């Protein structure tokens, strides 16, 4: 059974899956194992690893460190082809459908495909939609794309449907790391009512109550990153996991 299907099977006995995003950049050097141990103890369903910009050449070593310590699946959330590594259980094979930059619509994917084949990685085809969370994000700057406006849910729904009709397995609604605003519940609800594939939501989710609201709006995967890096105690992450699981 694939990692993705094992996560989907969990939805038979819990409302949604809770994922913790860990950025393997130098800013987290020295406490990666502590972060992973907190995830292990929390009841979280998996770890996403990756970042928009890695400031040194230690990315692969840090991902290997995360994978060695993890007791849950580790899934790559790549910022580009240069972040591909064998030290993960699967990779989100993403197309930035919210933008119109061909590099992130298809060029990066074409370059990545033979490398992923060689590494033997499981892929999860993902339509990645960046939404305007109230500030300029690293993804927006690095990809040279504009995010979708939060006040136009029909536009978000149209992009999510395009992901489904292109055969993708997952839609990721992203407000951006540390965004002032998370993806509004009404936008999540509009998307989940329109598509038949699971929806992942991340960015700007700072407390378990907000996470529950995303689940009740229809999200099947909830991702937190900044809150885990800044105050990621096992107790806090456990509170997130329990809130997401119970919905």
What would you say this structure looks like, in words?
It contains ten helices and eight strands. The mean pLDDT is 94. It has 247 residues and is an alpha/beta fold. Helix content is 43%, strand content 17%. Helix 7 links the parallel strand 6 and strand 7. It starts with a helix and ends with a helix. It has an eight-stranded parallel barrel with strand order 1-2-3-4-5-6-7-8, surrounded by eight helices. It is globular and about 45 Å long. It has a single domain (3-246), classed as FMN-linked oxidoreductases (TIM Barrel, Alpha-Beta Barrel). The longest helix is centred in the middle third of the chain and has 18 residues, at 102-119.
State the major sheet. Answer: 8 strands, parallel, barrel
Structural class: alpha/beta
Distance between the termini: 26 Å
Strand content: 15-25%
What is the CA-atom radius of gyration, in angstroms?
Answer: 16 Å
**Share of residues in helices:** 40-55%
| Fourth CATH level, the homologous superfamily | FMN-linked oxidoreductases
- The appropriate CATH architecture is Alpha-Beta Barrel
Give the neighbour order of strands across the main sheet. Answer: 1-2-3-4-5-6-7-8
The CATH class is identified as Alpha Beta
Give the helices and strands as they follow along the chain: HEHEHEEHEHHEHEHEHH
Gross morphology: globular
Total number of helical segments?
A: 10
The averaged pLDDT comes out at 94
List how many beta strands DSSP finds.
8
User: How many independent structural domains?
Assistant: 1
């Amino acid at each position: 059974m694939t990692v993705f299907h094992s996560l989907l099977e969990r939805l038979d006995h819990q409302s949604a899956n809770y994922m913790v995003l860990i950025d393997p950049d130098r800013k987290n050097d020295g406490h990666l194992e502590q972060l992973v141990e907190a995830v292990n103890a929390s009841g979280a369903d998996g770890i996403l690893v990756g970042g928009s910009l890695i400031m040194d050449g230690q990315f692969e070593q840090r991902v290997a460190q995360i994978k060695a310590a993890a007791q849950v699946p580790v899934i790559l959330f790549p910022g580009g082809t240069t972040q591909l590594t064998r030290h993960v259980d699967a990779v989100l094979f993403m197309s930035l459908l919210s933008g119109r930059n061909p590099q992130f619509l298809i060029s990066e994917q074409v370059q990545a495909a033979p490398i992923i084949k060689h590494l033997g990685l499981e892929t999860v085809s993902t339509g990645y939609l960046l939404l305007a969370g109230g500030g300029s994000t690293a993804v927006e700057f690095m990809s040279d794309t504009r995010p979708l406006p939060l006040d136009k849910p029909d536009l978000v729904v149209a992009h999510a449907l395009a992901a489904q009709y292109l055969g993708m397995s997952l839609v990721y609604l992203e407000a951006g790391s540390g965004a002032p605003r998370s993806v509004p519940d009404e936008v999540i609800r509009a998307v989940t009512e329109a598509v038949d594939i699971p929806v992942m939501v991340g960015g700007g989710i700072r407390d378990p109550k907000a996470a529950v609201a995303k689940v009740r709006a229809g999200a099947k995967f909830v991702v937190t990153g900044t809150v885990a890096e800044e105050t990621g105690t096992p107790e806090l992450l456990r509170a997130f996991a329990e809130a997401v699981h119970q919905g």
